[in-house]
Amino acid sequence: MKIEPSLDISFDSAFADRASLPWWPWVGSQFAQSEARTMLVGESVYDWNPAGSDFKTRYAGSDALRITHRNHALNLRRKSPYARNIERAIFRAATPTDEQKLHLWSSVAYHNRVLVPLASSKRRPTHDHYLAGWQELLDLCRLLAVKQCLVYGLEDKKLQALKQTVDLRGGTCIIRQVPTKVGRFVPRVASVTDGDFTTELPLIRHPSAFFNWRRWGAVIHENLALPGT
Questions:
Q1: Cβ-based neighbour number of residue 95 at 10 Å
Q2: pLDDT tens digits, residue range 126-135?
Q3: Domains, the chain, ranges and CATH?
Q4: Closest CA relative to residue 8, chosen from 136, 105, 82
Q5: Is the model's pTM score more than 0.90?
Q6: Nearest-angstrom CA–CA distance, 137 and 148
Q7: DSSP 8-state code for residue 213
């Protein structure tokens, strides 16, 4: 695996022990030193090369998600909406500086909730996909001592799967609505207690498309303390 200067590999031995974790999260080099360890949680990946072997070869390896994230987020000139829009929202600027972008991705962890590749961008995850994904996410939050997760996507089916997962673990999940609506969307914050561990999960619209970064940026800053902002 190629080691990026902004990647912390100190957790990799713990990731390797997890048979349920097919792709290891991106962990920024400054994540462990952050006052409030923060994970950004994306949705899923889909087979962008069904006729070839590139996708299958990459996603057979544990570093697959890291490679994809590096190609999109750390290629600072690449117009990848999921990365560029969240940077705009977090820094509340149409064109964040390269220094700001690199600082962000060095300071947070990044993980996808759905743990299997989807056949195409038109396929949607199942309830079982979400249950397995939330289970793994909560385990990772404990392993990495994550204090807050910024979760992309706030559909009810995802929230119901989260509540069911926490119930199955014997924990508590309190979901509150954020007073500020963004268009027709109602942001939410889930407060999860899992044994002796607690974490906050603000849920926002996925930043990949039709994302008003100014308004969602206000929601993020009201409910999350992010490094360098």
A1: 10
A2: 999 999 999 9
A3: 12-222 (3.40.470)
A4: 105
A5: yes
A6: 12
A7: H
HSE-up (13 A, CA, CB side) for residue 192: 30
Helical packing angle, 64-73 and 81-91, nearest 10°: 60
Distance CA 229, CA 221 (A): 9
Contact 119, 107 (CB under 8 A): no
From first CA to last CA, the distance across the chain in angstroms is: 31
The separation between CA 170 and the C-alpha centre of its own chain, rounded to angstroms, equals: 24
For the stretch 32-59, what's the b/e string if a residue is b when 16 or more beta carbons lie within 10 angstroms of its beta carbon?
eebeebbbbbbbbbebeeeeeeebeebb
Question: For 14, phi and psi rounded to 5 degrees?
Answer: -70, -40
Q: How far apart are CA 32 and CA 6, in angstroms?
A: 12
Q: Which residues pair with 174 in a beta bridge?
A: 191
Alpha helices in the chain (DSSP H): 12-16, 54-58, 64-73, 81-91, 98-107, 127-144, 156-168, 213-223
76 and 6 in contact (C-beta within 8 Å)? no
Q: Amino acid identity of 130?
A: Y
Structure tokens at 84: 């560029």
Q: How many CB atoms lie within 10 A of CB 75?
A: 11
pLDDT per residue as tens digits for the range 93-130: 999 999 999 999 999 999 999 998 887 677 789 999 99
CA distance linking residue 26 with residue 41, whole number of Å: 11
Distances, alpha carbon 71 to alpha carbons 97, 99, 224, in Å: 18, 17, 26
Can you tell me the mean pLDDT for 38-44?
Answer: 95
